[in-house]
Design a protein that fits this description.
single chain; 45 residues; mainly alpha
Length: 45
């Protein structure tokens, strides 16, 4: 349960927060790709 909460927290941290920062767009795209890869690995390993 804690793991799921942490995953959601990280999801919002990396996907939602950078939207509010203009200079964070590049970081947003990189983080989006990283989180997608990470979630893909954790879901199917």
């Amino acid at each position: 349960m804690v793991y799921i909460f942490m995953k959601i927290f990280i999801f919002f941290l990396f996907w939602i927060a950078p939207i509010f920062s203009e200079k964070g767009i590049k970081t947003y795209l990189e983080a989006q790709n990283a989180v997608f890869s990470l979630s893909f690995i954790t879901n199917f390993s």
